[in-house]
Design goal:
Pfam families: Acetyltransf_1. The protein has 173 residues and is α+β, with helices and mostly antiparallel strands. The model has no long low-confidence stretch (mean pLDDT 92).
Length: 173
């Protein structure tokens, strides 16, 4: 999908401008087209055509409706998405940010906003996420937002097994 995004200078986005709305099929298709530079390319999604044909993940309208939210700016331009994946007594977050917005200092304030949204969806439940141990940029943002590392284990990320940290949101956040 060839969406033209405003240049970084034109954007001047802050996390306060982000809101959440349903992740529509059009937003899902757009998110599947995002490409990240290495080593972040492991976060690229399978093609929309593949997901739609197999009815998996974003291509499954039921999963998309029940577990995903779009993160949009004040003009409803897609800036990211969040998966709210229910586990037993835990709500696991999975977050994707549009590639041109990465590394701009939006991570911590966005995660604080996402934590509030997650608490609204799952009051009283633990909120956690998984992050590759090498992704120091994300880990720092998550820590600033009130998450802390509780465990480290091997998990398949993209084509490879990698050490990942499980990070849990502090109860007082």
């Amino acid at each position: 999908m060839g969406h033209e995004y405003p240049s970084r200078r034109e954007q001047r986005l802050s996390a306060e401008q982000f809101t959440f709305c349903p992740l529509t099929e059009a937003y899902a298709q757009e998110a599947c087209s995002w490409r990240y530079p290495p080593p972040y390319d492991v976060f690229e999604r399978l093609s929309w055509e593949h997901q739609k044909a197999a009815e998996i993940d974003l291509g499954d309208p039921i999963v998309r409706d029940k577990q995903y939210l779009a993160i949009v700016d004040q003009h409803y331009i897609l800036c990211g998405y969040v998966q709210l994946f229910p586990l037993s007594g835990v709500l696991r977050l999975g977050v994707g940010l549009r590639p041109d917005l990465c590394g701009q200092g939006l991570g911590a304030p966005l995660m604080r906003k996402l934590a509030l949204e997650a608490r609204r969806h799952a009051p009283g439940q633990e909120i956690d996420l998984e992050v590759p141990a090498w992704n120091v940029r994300a880990i720092k943002a998550y820590e600033k937002a009130g998450f802390h590392i509780t465990d480290t284990y091997a998990l398949k990320v993209g084509p490879d097994w990698q050490d990942v940290h499980c990070m849990v949101l502090n109860n007082k956040e």
